[in-house]
Amino acid sequence: MTPFALKNALNNVRATTPLVHNITNYVTVNDCANALLAIGASPIMSHEPADVRDIQTICGGLTLNIGTLDERSIAGMFAAGERAGELGHPIVLDPVGVGASALRTKTAGDLLDRLSVSVIRGNMSEVKALAGGAASTRGVDVCPDDAVTEGNLSASAAFARAFAAKTSAVVAITGAIDIVADAERAFAIRNGSALMGRITGAGCMLSCLCTAFAVANPDALLESQVAAVAGMGLAGQVAEERMGGLDGNGSFRTYLLDALFNLGGDALEAGALVEELA
Amino acid sequence: MTPFALKNALNNVRATTPLVHNITNYVTVNDCANALLAIGASPIMSHEPADVRDIQTICGGLTLNIGTLDERSIAGMFAAGERAGELGHPIVLDPVGVGASALRTKTAGDLLDRLSVSVIRGNMSEVKALAGGAASTRGVDVCPDDAVTEGNLSASAAFARAFAAKTSAVVAITGAIDIVADAERAFAIRNGSALMGRITGAGCMLSCLCTAFAVANPDALLESQVAAVAGMGLAGQVAEERMGGLDGNGSFRTYLLDALFNLGGDALEAGALVEELA
Amino acid sequence: MTPFALKNALNNVRATTPLVHNITNYVTVNDCANALLAIGASPIMSHEPADVRDIQTICGGLTLNIGTLDERSIAGMFAAGERAGELGHPIVLDPVGVGASALRTKTAGDLLDRLSVSVIRGNMSEVKALAGGAASTRGVDVCPDDAVTEGNLSASAAFARAFAAKTSAVVAITGAIDIVADAERAFAIRNGSALMGRITGAGCMLSCLCTAFAVANPDALLESQVAAVAGMGLAGQVAEERMGGLDGNGSFRTYLLDALFNLGGDALEAGALVEELA
Predict the structure, then answer these.
(1) How many domains are there within chain A?
(2) Residue ranges making up the domain that contains B196
(3) Is C45 helix (H, G, I), strand (E, B) or coil?
(4) What ipTM, to 2 d.p.?
(5) Where does substrate bind (chains A, B, C) (predicted)?
(6) Contact residues on chain C for A29, CB-CB shorter than 8 A
(7) Which member of C19, C29, C72 has the closest CB to residue B70?
């Protein structure tokens, strides 16, 4: 990507150590914090409605992940999101499992409607459910029928652009092929590893990285999200290459964090498999 | 075990990718999710009462673990459990720390009374407390006096069978020697590693695996639970064999997940140390 | 340190397996549990107000960490802390992010005022905020201006002693140089690794270890806290030495737990870099 290089997006994260406020699920929250530290950002978690405004005030951006939403954390998401809006901070929405329950569908829809969301990051089933275009879901996993393939890439990109236009957000749809789009442009990213689907949290971690990249690159939101998605995918590839015969998803999780930790701007620029779609 | 082979139970999990809904403690929830992914299942966590019925509806079974219970998650457990009952989905109850507090004792008892629990998985102190036969407890660990030994194996199996008869559930009591029983039959399983007691979550992970095995083997509940318990123990042995001189419980945790990830049906069949008790 | 040797403090933990009740954040709670197991203690987590009195009753001490406080866990902290006070159990307070929000500042202050806190463990920004002497904070990280250095060591120690005198607690301020002080004496500890700041939870884990050491060494509180802080730092050094070229913070986290697991009394005595300050 030129003129804005992907490596700049990563280097800006490492140079500025953005503070990222995350209201996220308790399943993968530790990995989210360590992923942010690995990439050079600083994580803070706070969901209590009485706490989140102050915390958001000292941070640069907000991640909202509904993976284990409850009444209290939902209230915290709206309170934090409103404060982020007042301050012009980017908000990344990860609608985990939207479509799998009425509460998740309503909550994700309301967050999108009432807050100033900068980035939507999910799998295709989740993003379709959020867009109201599909009711199919297999819990927190993508439905096979929804997967982005070479065959439906053009149509998928058109969907992403249209949803980006409707929501005024960057839309990042991740899977075997990732799509990152705003209303005008769409990119396909072919980094990644199938093993990322065999650990919990690869998507959650990425959403937090998306926030860090958005905070550190205020003048290049779309490009920053391409960099975050490609960087996560590239880290997955590095982690997979490191797997030995006795290793499984326990080791892969560790290697993935290690790869994020060691990811440099030049390696990202060289390894990113990014194609701008017509 | 014949005619139903243990390997079938595992192969059925890997072939069907059961969706497992877990309401579990926040201490070990990440390990639980990764253990389910390692064994070939797909985890979903949701505790919010307004969310759990929908989530249970799309899943095949339910794990209830009271390790860090609170007012809200308790309500979620009952709501999810009632829905599981309506749908005929298996419920695995892990009564963590029952006997250590009045709330845990009452909650576990009520869950057992009011829900259709298919499997009870705990250490002997917990299962005794749940059965009302012992008040002794050492927090979340087994009391030394309660441990299953070769000397009390026959009496322990009789207790397990009687409690299974009373509750109409399979009872899985894990420790140095594991016992899995229904009202008719009891098995001793001698797989495992002492290091499993030096990490948090070995029991919690197993309970989630028990749910996955129950979902994937609807016609062989008892045998499926023997397979889950033996499989977890065998993974512990594989993990222990991999330990190097600098390794500790951090590495053991990773190796345990790796071993679950790589566990095959034939290896389980060959390595399971299962004895049917008279 | 003589006559009480640091190694005794550690050996007492391993010999007595203290049960430690922790009300802590959900970000690092798994690492906290595994760190306690690594050092030879036994962790229990419980935050529900209706559960905590019973749980504290069977434990030896209490860790209070406000990292992801909410209305319910705050109520649990006071209830558990009151019970600990009735029983004479040590309480370790980790005021994560105090100063970063009004709720955190008020909660940490109230816990300190209303409970019988034995140990306060935080970074210098947090401890200053708790002492009311500074409002500066950078989320959960220390402000660069607040860091303990060789240049301000004497003044830092004087501050720690004065705050210890005011609160009747041992004050443990951790950073590149750690300070542990009561009203009379102060120690500088120069163990540790910069990588401890690149994982989440090093401080949280240490606070839990502080509780275990306090429980196991009732007649040597100050010395026990020096041992806990030096032990954690030494484990960080061992972990750092183990880092290979592909390793990052994922592996470091694992190595840190491993190093705690393998830490022996003699190694602690030999490796501790402890200086009593005038």
Answers:
(1) 1
(2) 6-277
(3) strand
(4) 0.96
(5) 45, 201
(6) 26-27
(7) C72
